[in-house]
Amino acid sequence: MEKSEWYKETTDVIQKLRIEMPYKAVKKVKLERIERIVEHVESNVAIGCVECEQSKKIIKKMLGSIREGNQESIKTYWKDMSNILNHLSSVHQLYTLEDRIAFWVPIGMGIGIGTGIALGAVFGRIHENMTLMAIGLVIGNAFGMSLGVAVAFVQTEVLKSKNQII
Ligand SMILES: [Zn+2]
Fold first, then answer.
1. Residue 89 above 90 pLDDT?
2. Ligand 1 center to residue 10 CA distance, Å?
């Protein structure tokens, strides 16, 4: 399908920014993510999403904010970014690795704390030792956090293959 004028202009600005800005700054503002957002917004508008249509203007403004590069404009930039990401995840099932981690870690922690309490209670009771209970909890916590992060990474890989990671 023919790309819109907005798409051509926006990708053009992104290419220019990539050349003009130091590599570190490009990474810092996550310019690659903006690029992927632009791709998705373009196709979502084609299927009639009104909110994505509105976010076209915001994305233009965001690129302006990058160019300005002062503290205030960068603050607005991240706020705009998170609004757009919220919409993309809730309506279009598009996610970032960060939000998959934010989603799975609390679940993993829940499981881990549950396991830790159970383990701690069993061993603590056998040995009549509160310290063992506490250790059970600490291990459960660490285990839960790693579990959450691991699941998030696996899910991100699966979503990536379906082009659902931005
Ligand atoms: Zn949309």
1. yes
2. 17
pTM for this prediction: 0.83
Lowest-pLDDT range of 121-135, 136-150, 152-166: 121-135
Angle between helices 71-92 and 50-68 (to 10 degrees): 160
* pLDDT for position 64: 96
CA distance 158 to 165: 9
Query: Of 77, 103, 95, which is closest to residue 159 (Cα–Cα)?
Result: 95
Place of tokens 């051509």: 8
Q: Give the distance (Å) from ligand 1 centre to CA of residue 93.
A: 10
CA distance 44 to 42: 6
Could you tell me the residue ranges of all domains in the chain?
Answer: 5-92, 97-161
**Per-residue pLDDT for 37 more than 80?**
yes
Cα(126) to centroid of ligand 1, in Å?
A: 56
Q: Using a pLDDT cut of 90, give the percent of the chain over it.
A: 84
CA of 134 relative to ligand 1 center, distance in Å: 47
Distance from Cα 45 to the centre of ligand 1, integer Å = 7
Q: Helix 50-68 to helix 31-46 angle, to the nearest 10 degrees?
A: 160
